[in-house]
Amino acid sequence: MAYLIYSLNMTLNGHCHHEDAVVDQEHHEYALELLHGSEALILGRHTYDLFAAFWPEAATRKDLPKFMQYLAMELQSIPKRVVTTRPLEFPWQNTEALKGPDIENTRQFLSEISGNVVLFGSPALAASLADASLINEYQFLLEPFVSTSGKQAFDGAKVWQRLMLLDAKRLNRDVMLLRYASGP
Fold it and tell me: What is the C-alpha to C-alpha distance for residues 47 and 42, in angstroms, rounded to an integer?
């Protein structure tokens, strides 16, 4: 069974909107390092649409810094699975759909992998996967904002969970990376 790592940008009051993040070189290098050690990437449909609107073309854009191009190349090459109820009209390279919202297809996919799999963003999907005890590690990038935009992290989760702190470190001047393991 895969070791599922959930990575989420989250404001101080628990919101997770894609614009409420300090997205700098350290942030991109963190994502690249996380993907380097992984066999696949899982995304919810909304997060996939956000990623697919930018990253497929970023690898060849000369106006972007190299660290963004490197991340774009890694995102291009890693197998991606999108949990969705709708067909992917213009799928990104190495992308397949996992029929949702039931997580059994995702559970089956995870059971076929022995290494790391990363889930970026996708708060509704993460709540379902957390309820099913499929997330092994949580990596929260605590962003220096109080926000009213976006979903609340784990909104809709039904199962109470105890997490164990693995590590806390400063990602950049204002962002903390908090790593937690699923509780016993």
Answer: 10
- Which pair of structure tokens corresponds to residue 24? 């700098």
Residue 40 tokens, joined: 């696949």
- pTM for the full model? 0.94
Neighbours of 151 (CB within 10 A): 18
CA dist 9 and 119 (Å) reads 12
| pLDDT tier at 183, thresholds 50, 70, 90 | confident
Q: Which residues contact 15 (CB under 8 A, 6 or more apart)?
A: 147, 148, 149, 150, 151, 152, 153
What are residue 87's phi and psi, to 5 degrees? Answer: -65, 150
The gap between the terminal CA atoms of the chain, to the nearest Å, is: 17
Residue 47, pLDDT > 90, answer yes
**Extended beta strands in 38-127, E state:** 40-44, 80-84, 95-99, 116-120
What tokens does 59 get? 């690898």
Tens of pLDDT, residues 2-45: 999 999 999 999 888 888 888 899 999 999 999 999 999 999 99
Give 89-97's long-range contacts (Cβ < 8 A, gap of 24+).
90/52, 92/48, 92/51, 92/52, 92/55, 92/56, 93/56, 95/48, 95/52
